[in-house]
Each structure stands twice: as structure tokens, then as C-alpha cells.
Fold this sequence. Notes:
single chain, alpha+beta, seven-stranded mixed β-sheet
Amino acid sequence: MRYLITFLTAILLLSACQKTPTPTASENAKRYPFKGKVISVDKVKKKAKIEHEEVKGFMEPMTMDFPIHEDWVWDDLVPGVEMEAELVVDNTGKDPYWLEKIRISAAPNANVQVPPINENFAQIGKEVPAFSLTNQDGEKFSLRDYRGKATAITFIYAQCPLPDACIRMSTHFSDLANKLKDDAELKDKIRLVSVSFDPARDTPEKLKQYGQGYLGKDAKPDFTIWQLAVGNDQEVKAIADFFGVRYQVDEQDKTQFTHSLITAVISPEGKVTKIMKGTDWSPDDLLKELQSSIK
């Protein structure tokens, strides 16, 4: 019996050593109770789209993707289940936030189907209508003003609190703008536009301050390549609908939105050539798509 126990112990230790270690949070990480409903899962990227309740002290109810490092969950974490977890926020980690200590609190209701993701937004090959917006300098412009240039357009709002959503999107755009401003060949061929779907608070002046923070406060901000834009509710809704962007204000707290993340590439001829979902791409990835649309 003693030899059997020793043998089994050795097997368990060997198995434990072979497992991929779960990333650990730093001592400065913050943790919040989390509760929501699973909308969809991506087992390969180890992420789940979750419609969650208010995370008290951190953010309002939203629907967004969350990394999950634990391997065991993917057999049980299916669309429709209700779950509880611990939200870890750690800006020093590989992921700035993720979910731990997953608990399935309710199985999916077999009588209720989870609405499918709308894939009909991809306007590839279609000409972009002459949408009218106002930029950070208070000047009216149309997307048709960018004919002859490759353009990328995305959607944000200034008070978005999530590092993996609007913050990352604006970081990508500002990083690419700063890279292109010194490129003699491309600086006049490419334009970037971030459209706010929060016209009630994102005035041109507010967007200019927001953009300055990303471009670098120590340098004179140059909005030649990257424009931040806003319109009235009707104008923003029209352009968002064309590109398939979904957003909805929280009626309990109108400072927060639930929204999708989409970036579209428009050719110099004014036609959509690429739709990029989420933020799982780099400024260089976007640059390649813009250059491809020029060719």
C-alpha cells in the first residue's frame, strides 16, 4: 500500500507539473464580484461574450468579451448559461482584465434561444454614403471629402472605462497617426476617423481634449491624419447602422453604453474593402489593410 500511495502521488505531481500555469495577478490588481449571462464563446482565443450586471465600483451593465484563463470552463460555459465569477483588473498583466473563479449558476433555458450575432453588416464593396459629421475643430465634413485617400473609420465614446474597448481602439488609431505623420509617402494618402456615438457629452471641444491625450500632450497635436467626429443622434445612428455598429445607452446611467466594436477600411474610391471586428488587431495590421485598399 505504501508503494501504491507513493506511485499515485508521483503521478499526480507529474500531471500538475505538465499543466500550463494559470496567469497570476499582481499585488495591485483589483477584484470585483461579477454576474452575467453568456452570449457566445471563443474557445480558441479563450474569451466569452457576456451580458453582465453592474460591477459595483467599476462599471455599469454591458455586453463585451472577457478573457478566461481556466481551461475547464469551456465544456460548461455555453451560450445561454448564467454565471458568476470574479473580475480581475490588472493593467500590468498580459490581459488588463479577466474572469476567475467561474461558477455556473443556471443552465440555459431550452425554451429560449440566444439571439444570433448579426453578420449582415459587412458592406464589402459598397460605396459609403455622404455622411455629414463635425470634427474636433467644430468643422463640418463628409466622408466623401476623403475620396482619393484610404480611410479607416471606427466608433468610440470618450468616457468608455474599459482598456480593451474604446481605449485600445483610440490607442491603435493615435499610434498609427503618429507613425504616419513622418512618412512622406503615406501621410497624404491615409486618413483615420473615430466617430463618437455619445453626442450629448462628446462635443467637438471634448473630443479635441480626448484626442490630445492620445496623440501626446507634450507635442503639438496634429489632427491632419486622425479626426475625431460627432453628429446629432440621427446622423450618428445612420452611419453606425451602415457599418453594422450596435450601441445602446444604459437608461439607468446615461454615461455608459453597451456597444459593438467595428473598424471599417474604405478605399480611395469610397468603397468598403474590409470590416475588422473587435480590437484583436494591431496598428500595423490596419496599415496593411489601408495600403492594400490603395493598391
